Fold this protein.
Amino acid sequence: MVAILPYDIWCYIVSFIPKANLIKLYTVNSLFFHLALKEIYREVNIYHTGDERTLRCLFTMRCVSSNSKVAFTYLLSGVVAHHVDSLVLRPHLFGNSVSVFRFSRLEESAWKYLRRHMNKTAKPSNFVASRIFLRHIAQMTEVKSLTIGCYPSDDIEGFKSAAPFVRTAWSTLQSRLRILNLTIPLEAYSNSKIFPPKLVMGSLEELTIVLRKAYNTTDDGEIIASIVPFINRQHKSLISLTIDTPDGRVNPSPLFNALCRFPHLTKLSILHLRFTDCSGIDVFLTKHAQRLEDLKIRFHVTHHVPSPTKFFSHPMFRIDLPQLAYLDLGLFQWPKNSQINATDGLVRYIGRVGRWLTRLTVRDCALTFPQVVSLVSVVSSEAPKLRSLEMHVYSLSCSLLDLLSQQLPMLHHLELWLMNQGDVTWITNYYWNGFDVCSLACFRAETISC
């Protein structure tokens, strides 16, 4: 039976086995041995020696071979490393450890420590662990996804001192990496030891950059100008780009104004954007209008909410996107006296870009039933192939479900949020099978009484 099923099918089956039971597959045969390794060490997290997932990378691999320390050491740094598909680096606590001595001096002592303590529960020091991790990273040649993180609670100076971790990752993964997430403060980009000035990743397809300042006094404009060349150097392979400003304190306008055209870009996500910082987005959208298939824009909520008329009159909402298949649009919760203008603006925009839409999400603004009627009317005429719809509504009724089932016959996924007196409450997902007309909707009976 092992020979009958393809390898990919076995990988899918093994993904459902609890990790605590995967070790039992080691003794079945060589195929299941490698399947278990691939699943257990699919993602490796390097944070600190008190983190459970980090310690697993150091010590729980001893289950691979308990008979020979030599075999264990080989598997730890070789076979296991080649099974790592996703690497998460958050090395700020290792900063002081990797900057004291040269790696070559302590490499041997680090491995002696590991062999001496491999069957013990004592935690290694950051000094020893950092040497072991650096060697592991250098052998993780099959990693496709890399996340480099330095979060608000982390020590940014320690992260800068941990440059060897990032440099090792660049040198090892530069040609194979497909997904890169840079969740670090802007101040870290100024450290040339961490980010080489001419770094090009020929296989990179998805890039996520979080624009966040660690200090309020930081000149974000100057640092953003230094990030632009790095992004532009990836223009030949990049398919997806995400720009996130989580706290709304960084203006990404200089970034969008300076970015070049990416010939293969089909997905763009702009998250937590302040409406006052939208300059340049229309320029970037214009460059990629003919190829963009997936667009997500969500805004940072402030006390100064633009009127619906001002919001939808922005140049970025006047650009035709003829290939757009998925739109995820975040709005503002406007007062009820602005509902007419909000509806008109939303309907006009959906009519402009909705010809080939198959998925539509309208967030952060609860719609009344008349607004839903107007929205569904334009969607049914301009986007007849819509299969997925997500939106906020004030109330759920049979009339609403009847409207959706009649006007959107291809719809098979519906997800609603109910808003009540300003409080957003998550309600269960609503699904129906578009191929079964007898099965209109499946939801909990206690949610609504028809």
Confidence is low (pLDDT under 50) at residues 60-76, 99-108, 117-121, 421-450. Residues 103-117 form the longest helix (15 residues). The CA atoms of residues 99 and 110 lie 15 Å apart.
